[in-house]
Amino acid sequence: MTFANLDYSSKRQLFLNREIRCVELTEYYLNQIEQNKDINAFISVFPEQAIEQAKLVDSKIDKGEAGALAGMVLGIKDLLVMTNGTTTCGSKILHNFKSPYNATVIEKLSQQDAIFIGKTNMDEFAMGSSNENSYFEPVRNPHDKTRVPGGSSGGSAAAVAADLCMGSLGTDTGGSIRQPASFCGVIGLKPTYGLVSRFGLVAYASSLDQIGPFSKNVADTALLLQVLAGHDEKDSTSANIDIPDYSALLGKDVKGLRIGLPKEYFTGGVNHQVSDQIQKVIKELEQAGAEVKEISLPHTEYAIAAYYIIATAEASANLARYDGVRYGYRDENVPDLESLYVNSRTMGFGNEVKRRIMLGTYVLSSGYYDAYYLKAQKVRTNIKNDFDKAFESVDCLLTPTSPTTAFKIGEKVDDPLTMYLSDVFTVSVNLAGLPGISVPCGKDADGLPIGVQLIGKPFDEPTLLWAADFIDKRFN
Amino acid sequence: MDYEAVIGLEVHIQLLTNTKIFCSCSAKFGADPNSQVCPVCLGMPGVLPVLNKKVIDFAIRLAIATNCKINEKSIIARKNYFYPDLPKGYQISQYEQPVCEHGFLDIPDNGETTRIGITRIHLEEDAGKSMHSESYVARDESLVDINRCGVPLLEMVSDPDFRSPSQVSSYLTKLRQIVRYLGICDGNMEEGSMRCDANISIRKRGETKLGTKTELKNMNSISAVEKALEYEIRRQIAVLEDGASIQQQTLLWNANKNCVEPMRSKEYAHDYRYFPEPDLLPVVIKQEWIESVKQSLPELPDVKKQRFIDDFALPEYDASILTDDLAIADYYEKLANNVKDKKAASNWVMGDVLRTLHENQLTISELKVTPEYLAEIIQLVEQDKISVKIGRKVFEICADSGKNPQVIIKEEGLVQISDTGELEQIVDKILDENPNEVDAYLAGKEKVIGFLVGQIMRASQGKANPKSVNEILKNKLESRR
Fold first, then answer.
1. Alpha carbon of B1 to those of B212, B228, B241: distances in Å?
2. CA-CA distances (angstroms) from residue B361 to B39, B356, B358, B369?
């Protein structure tokens, strides 16, 4: 099919002209998924339901009642609950779990006639940077199947990159949308904390988690965000703000746009091919009239430590409900309640999840709380203040998304600390609650995608999408 | 050796909101197991809590009634522990910065008033109920009912200001009265809608250092609390007198055996790992909110009592009995506003009304003698249309049938005989029949009048107007001199 790379509005025109039907397109993607099983991007696929949904959308198109995303075929990270099929969170402990309700984002996309083709693979409970922590086997990077797609939303990124769906939803707690977007060469947006409802997002770290879209072009990202954003009374942390038109600034020239380069993100430790490519992006922006200047985020070096304390503390409570009592994996051969808990959780969770639960339990323990959790919260405030200060003189920040391109499967599995450092450029954004986007900006010598990250002011997604669109159009 | 007890209380007050604290499930007591549940209170993956504002309204009411400071910003926290009736593996509660702090309650204490400090009031969700030994639970199995999960609670922690079990009982009685007046809790300790745990230690009188405390649980009535504390004081004294030392532990009151039993250590050896609940924003209570609750606050028991004393000229004893229960107080007030003699109205309520309620196990709203009916009865007595005795008869019939007192009087022919001619005839007849008593009177033994009045009343079947009878009788007797 030749129109794989068309953006949604061009495809929509074809739908409306009946040049192609949603059913045909859905069949195309189902076939693509079948042909690319080795990528392992999906945990479950919904062939019947997707075709059914597509037929319904076709009839709506015929009646002139098509929603804003009519025929947009989407993959959904298996961390978002749907009454369709199972919601496994990439874990054995929920391998057979059926949700009795839909996440708010699923309801919103449904209302606009999006079509859900399946649930994408992920690191167990969104804990990981390589997708190797999935109970359903790792996802492979479509650009090089010996390499990881990044994580934790690796399946969602790989599915879009391999053209298994038009777009997808991921979640981002410390970089889980942006880093895989960078590794797979697609656009991944982590919205401002509170912009998109978390109701139905299975919590990893509640104060950091956000849902966001993957797509192949910024126009589709803006379109998806338009539907996803907005207050939800079921989520007390969702912001009650007026939602702007996210497509308004797309295509506008970047003259006068003030871009900050945080100097702490441009010291060694970044692969030279990555940094060279980022420099090219900066030059391109400058030539187009953007004002680029160096700024400082002095608390950057504490971000990873603060992140792994706060995220694991919250995770230790969020994952307590998986106890084998009401749903999910349960060890039946136990003499008492204590063993039911211990065995079900020992066998139901993978190693990384257990590591983070133990870490989180430890940092909240009596006698350690002040030294770890409280200290980390103070660091978090300092990091937030760093950004506030930077945004007094610039409109957005530009950094590499990840210090490297996609690494080999198995390369870092035995070294959690090195693995954690893959998030070094992304975690601060979550700690500060800011929007961040990764845009592909070229490839390294091995043909692996390189991503550039843009960071914006709270709720200033329009500016981010504007700059991202410029970069995307110049480099892809 | 002379010892004194030091006691502090934690009271859980289950709130009478229509819905649960973090979801829209019904919070009603007594439904079929697991019939009032949803993904949120079941702790399904992906759900989020949304705070029920009514809970804050109720907390503000209790804070005002117990003289607490209301924090403008309070923090909601997670309390982590594993138990099958706790679906999320943590309870949403408060730890640092509770919703209210630093209050007090003045309680009656042997004719005096003692002030008990209130450390804090915080809001939290109730857990579900585990069933272990009920008849329908198989051996080696336990069942869980999630209905109660998410029912809102206020936990009120007192300072360790109690020195005796009777003070504790007075405090609980007062608190129960207050929460009922506020309409925030039905105060029913038997059903567990008000639950009380006590921390207790003893020390030699005069000693300022605190002794090692134990925690008492599982007491489901005010008298059980009193009994358990008395038992525990005796037990602790015996331990110390033996030269042994008190072990810090949690004890369960066994109401059947009238003793305390230690809880298994595993059940309370917790590090709750409290931390701020990231799914909920801090609760912000602005002065306007407090003011609006104040405006709608019902009159509190002490204020009502004083008003009854002032407005109805009642003795303190009467006012205190009448205001003990809000519904009774409302009944009396309606009644008093319709009769001249407020004290007579009080006597009626404290006497016939309360006795009828007690004898028939009724609540005041079930009493067929409405305040309007009783007012009519009292008015008829005031107007000398019926005697007090007939009035009580009418009350009794009305309580039984619910008929209008006027109708009862007509049907039963109970109208008072005030017709002088008719009364004179009866008096003459009685005097003729009792010449000895007449002679005795004339000889100066005025006491016989009582006997003669009795005879006259009986002859009139109680319908004779006593005042007129007295007058006529005296005249007739004098005329026989």
1. 18, 22, 8
2. 41, 8, 5, 15
CB atoms B90 and A317 under 8 Å: yes
Q: pLDDT tens across A180-214, in order?
A: 999 999 999 999 999 999 999 999 999 999 999 99
As a whole number of angstroms, the distance between CA B122 and CA B144 comes to: 26
Test the A interface: residue of B25, B50, B141, B273 with most A CBs within 10 Å = B273
Mutate to test the interface with A, among B82, B130, B146 (most CBs of A within 10 A): B82
Closest to A159 in 3D by CA, of A312, A36, A256? A36
Dist CA B157 CA A360 (whole Å) = 30
Q: Using N-to-C axis directions, what is the helix angle for B435-442 and B466-479, rounded to 10°? A: 80
- Please report the ipTM that was assigned to this predicted complex: 0.95
Are A77 and A156 contacting, i.e. CB atoms less than 8 angstroms apart? yes
Q: Considering the entire predicted model, what is its pTM?
A: 0.89
Q: Give the tokens for residue A14.
A: 């074809």
Chain A to chain B Cβ contacts (< 8 Å):
99
A393 carries an active-site annotation: no
Q: Is A168 a catalytic residue?
A: no
- Is A375 considered catalytic here? no
Six token digits for residue B307 = 């008003």
Of B45, B51, B87, Cβ closest to residue A202: B45
Chain A nearest C-alpha distance from B51 (Å): 8
Task: With beta carbons less than 8 A apart as the criterion, state whether A157 and A147 touch.
Answer: no
Cβ neighbours around A359 below 10 Å, total: 18
